Amino acid sequence: MITILGSILLAVVVGFWGGVADASEYEAVVRRNPTLTWYAPLQEAEPLPADVIRGGTPVWGQGPDEGKAILFDGTRYLTWGPRPNLEVEEVTVELWFSPAFDAMPYNPCLIAMREDGNHQLTRWSIHLHGDRSAIDLWNGRSVAQYRPATGVLEKGRWYHLAVTSGKGGTAVYING
Fold first, then answer.
1. Tell me: the pLDDT tens digits for 17-27?
2. Is the dihedral of CA 7, 11, 17, 23 positive or negative?
3. How far apart are CA 119 and CA 41, in angstroms?
4. Residue 115 forms beta bridges with which residues?
């Protein structure tokens, strides 16, 4: 299952991407990629299936550029059923997020592949540190940490995050 949760504003896309001039071109570029395995645009105009919503009705807010995003408050989250097509050796996971908190006593999860409600069956997950100083990657066995060169991420600012993982290693990109 893919689960999206946390205490942040979040718009999520999972797949591979290439450079685009603006947000209006983004979906077309993503959908043209022949290696795309899953895409969840989370657009207000396209209602979410009821079976993916947990913890209350989605609340929409301003997203990056002219788009919309879902506001997560620590109780609302989204979950999709099993995604065996994401059990691959090489993958890129990408998303937009905006931390909406000053500090948290835990590291909110941005996106994860896990059994719904059972954190011990997590295949992988991506977390933002509660003080916004780092991104943590969990691969089901160990945690890797990435500290942005620019320092602590700003509250309320939108960031594009891409994590690539394959036989040659893992790379984390924030706004790059």
1. 344 445 556 67
2. negative
3. 25
4. 118
